[in-house]
Every structure is written in structure tokens, then in C-alpha cells.
């Protein structure tokens, strides 16, 4: 057989075999997808999930159904996802609480926050805001972070610091502040941000690191005095309020606390499913009107790759582990 003809036949054979050598894309989704929220309805994480679900339903042509699984400090719902089949039909909206602070508070969890999950993409982030009761602030001559540190240094234990509960991100934002400034404020945990804010507005407590979305109405009405926001950048809905780093001087250089939410699934999800989800989530969270709605409520659209989200979680686990150990925080 002539050499050129033999080469042509070999080339044709390779062309015919090539499709069978390329992995087929997973036929997903062909049924509804469960989006687990390990918190009670009506909370910030639930809101994120319920805003994402209809957008994902429209993108993939199958229902994405929000399933609230609260309990055990978010451990119950998170563990359920870790143990689910990695087929893309069980996902969750995880947070700084489920995947960074929780592992520090509960070192003997039945799951590993990194190894037992597929981190698909972060979708939203928000900061906390350091707020005071305005009357209490005037009485103590506090109008800035510098004033707060000065007063707390000179008067250990004179200020009390409310939080949404022991071990919450709001509590640990305050503990990190105390550690970096070497000050002491008495921690008063509440069962949720709402009751704590009511007492702060009433003047029963002095100071609080609260999530921007839940404090913004009180700030706008003048019932709370914002001293600083906790992310490394200013928050659009509080553009005139400096960051803790900006206002705190050398002692607080590097201070950064951001609460985040992202979509995760069990470990070993099909890579093509993860990639498709990541692409659609990036498109969804950057498009109006969802982006505009989140911004108005104090959230920022995030996005990012699976690798970036995994790296973030690993860094956050180390960071909050150090804070929890240094503060001696124990779960209720």
C-alpha cells in the first residue's frame, strides 16, 4: 500500500476513534437540585439562597429547591451535605460560620471543611460595622475608633460589647479587635442580632460589631453611631464610614473581617458539573437586578473560581482558629 494512503487511513481511524476517547459531559441536571441552607428561614444566608435559587432554575432548566436544615450551630445541615452523593443534586450555601468558625469551635466535627466538600464558588460577601449607642458614645467622648481604643485602654471592663451569640462572626470580630488593641470589653452574648441591637439602641449595652445589612436602618435613622466597617475596603452603603484599618492606626493594621456565603457540594463532584455551576454563578451574581438588590442590602456580589474559594476557606480556617484559641471561646 502506498505510504500516503496508509497515512490517510491511520489519520481517518484516529479521527473516528477520537470522540470515544474524550470524556462525555455529565448529563446534569435531569431532575431537581436541593440547595441546603443550614440555618433557619428568614436569615441572611436563607435570603442569599432564595435569591439564587430562581436564577439557577432559569439557567439550568430544573428546579433548585431551598431546603432549610438548621440546628447544632449549622452542623446538622452541613454534615448532611458532606455525606451526600457527589452527583451535583445536593448543594449548600455555606458561610464563614459553617466552614471557618464552626471547625474552630467544634474541633471534633464529623466532616473536614475542605476535604469533604467541593467549593464551587463564593457568591456574596458583607462586612460588619462597629456601632455604638450615640448617647453612650457622647458620654465617654468617643467619636472614632481612636477614641474607643483610648477609652477602653484607660478603662478596662467599663465598656460592654454585645454580640449575636457566643462564637458568631459578630462576636469574633470583636474578639479580634480586642486582641489587636490589647483592650478588654465585657462580652455580652445574645440569641441573635435582633435582640442585641434592641438593647444597643436602648442604651443597655455600649458597643457592637454587627452585620451591615441588619444595622443599616438604625444607622440611617440616627439610632446607632457607626465608627468603622470591618472589611479591608469601604462598604458602598456606608461610603463615608472608614474601615477599621483606616481609622485604627498601626495597632489595627491588617484587621479585616468579612462574612461570606458560597455554594458548595460534597467532595468529588464531577469536574464538568462544578465548572458549569461556577460559570453560571459568576454570571448570575454580577448581573442586575440581583447585584443591585444585594448592594442595597449591604451585600457585595463575589464570584470567583473553585480554586480561589477553596484557598479562601483554608485561610479563614487558620485565621479564626487562632482567634478562637486566643480568646478561649467555647460554644454555648
Description:
Helix 4 (96-105) packs parallel to helix 13. The chain contains 13 helices and ten strands. The model is unreliable at 3-8 and 10-22 (pLDDT under 50). The chain is of the alpha/beta class. Strand 1, helix 2 (44-60) and strand 2 form a beta-alpha-beta unit. Strands 1, 2, 3, 4, 5, 6, 7, 8, 9 and 10 form a ten-stranded mixed sheet that branches. The radius of gyration is 24 Å and the shape is globular.
Brief description of this entry?
With 332 residues, this protein is of the alpha/beta class.
Largest sheet: 10 strands, mixed
Overall geometry comes to globular
What is the helix tally? 13
Q: Whole-number radius of gyration?
A: 24 Å
N-C termini distance: 82 Å
The portion of residues assigned to helices is 40-55%
- Percent of sequence in beta strands: 15-25%
Note the topology.
Blueprint: H1 3-21, E1 33-37, H2 44-60, E2 64-68, H3 75-82, E3 90-95, H4 96-105, E4 117-132, H5 134-139, H6 145-154, E5 160-163, H7 169-181, E6 186-189, H8 193-202, E7 207-211, H9 212-220, E8 225-229, H10 244-248, E9 258-266, H11 271-286, H12 290-296, E10 300-301, H13 306-327
Amino acid at each position: 500500500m502506498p505510504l500516503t494512503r496508509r497515512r490517510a487511513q491511520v489519520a481517518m481511524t484516529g479521527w473516528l476513534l477520537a470522540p470515544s476517547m474524550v470524556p462525555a459531559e455529565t448529563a446534569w441536571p435531569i431532575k431537581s437540585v436541593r440547595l441546603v441552607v443550614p440555618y433557619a428561614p428568614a436569615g441572611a444566608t436563607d435570603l442569599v439562597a432564595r435569591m439564587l435559587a430562581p436564577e439557577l432554575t432559569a439557567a439550568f432548566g430544573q428546579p433548585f429547591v431551598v431546603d432549610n436544615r438548621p440546628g447544632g450551630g449549622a452542623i446538622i445541615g452541613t454534615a448532611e451535605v458532606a455525606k451526600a452523593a457527589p452527583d451535583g443534586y445536593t448543594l449548600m450555601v455555606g458561610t464563614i460560620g459553617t466552614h471557618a468558625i464552626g471547625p474552630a469551635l467544634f474541633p471534633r466535627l464529623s466532616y473536614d471543611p475542605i476535604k469533604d466538600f467541593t467549593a464551587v464558588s463564593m457568591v456574596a460577601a458583607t462586612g460588619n460595622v462597629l456601632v455604638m449607642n450615640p448617647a453612650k458614645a457622647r458620654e465617654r467622648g468617643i467619636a472614632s475608633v481612636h477614641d474607643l481604643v483610648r477609652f477602653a485602654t484607660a478603662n478596662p471592663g467599663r465598656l460592654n460589647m454585645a454580640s449575636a451569640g457566643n462564637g458568631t462572626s459578630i462576636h469574633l470580630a470583636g474578639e479580634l479587635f480586642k486582641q489587636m488593641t490589647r483592650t478588654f470589653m465585657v462580652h455580652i452574648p445574645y440569641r441573635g442580632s435582633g435582640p442585641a441591637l434592641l438593647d444597643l439602641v436602648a442604651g443597655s449595652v455600649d458597643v457592637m460589631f454587627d452585620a451591615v445589612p441588619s444595622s443599616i436602618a438604625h444607622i440611617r435613622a440616627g439610632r446607632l453611631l457607626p465608627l468603622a466597617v470591618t472589611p479591608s475596603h469601604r462598604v458602598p452603603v456606608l461610603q463615608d464610614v472608614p474601615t477599621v484599618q483606616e481609622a485604627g492606626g498601626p495597632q489595627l493594621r491588617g484587621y479585616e473581617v468579612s462574612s461570606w456565603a458560597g455554594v458548595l457540594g460534597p467532595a468529588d463532584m464531577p469536574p464538568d458539573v462544578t465548572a458549569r455551576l461556577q460559570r453560571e454563578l459568576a454570571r448570575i451574581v454580577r448581573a442586575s437586578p440581583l447585584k443591585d438588590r444585594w448592594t442595597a442590602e449591604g451585600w457585595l456580589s463575589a464570584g470567583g473560581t473553585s480554586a480561589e474559594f477553596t484557598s479562601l476557606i483554608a485561610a479563614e480556617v487558620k485565621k479564626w482558629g487562632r482567634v478562637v484559641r486566643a480568646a478561649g471561646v467555647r460554644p454555648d
